[in-house]
Design brief:
mainly beta; 9 strands
């Protein structure tokens, strides 16, 4: 089994901090994709679409200029804000098997993703 690449892979969120992610039936999964060309990040945060950029240097990773659409949803807004804060706090990354882990500047695990497919 090949290890997915950080860039150009669809990453589905499976843990946010120490909480496993549960997606309601009929709702899209929370995910990100780091697009190598132009260093853009695209994704879905649970209610709103997410766009922005990223800076990458070895294992260092920072998300910059993050913006979201402004839809209000009846549920999941707190989780969406926590996800956005985790991305904004990201300092480092690591891929273990088919999982991407994002870490804060103190080494704390902020989020864990699972690769869905590679392009």
């Amino acid at each position: 089994v090949s290890t997915p690449e950080l860039e150009n892979t669809h990453w589905k969120l499976v843990r946010l901090g120490d909480q496993p992610m549960l997606v309601s039936a009929g709702r899209p999964e929370i995910h990100v994709r780091l697009v190598r060309e132009g260093r853009k990040v695209q994704g879905f945060a649970g209610c709103n679409r997410l766009v922005g950029g990223y800076e990458l240097g070895g294992q260092d990773l920072r998300f910059v200029g993050l913006a979201m659409t402004r839809m209000a949803c009846p549920e999941g807004m707190e989780q969406e804000q926590a996800f956005l804060k985790a991305l904004e706090a990201t300092a480092r990354w690591n891929i273990l098997s088919k999982h991407l882990e994002l870490y804060g500047s103190s080494g704390e695990l902020l989020a864990r993703f699972e690769s869905r497919y590679m392009e």
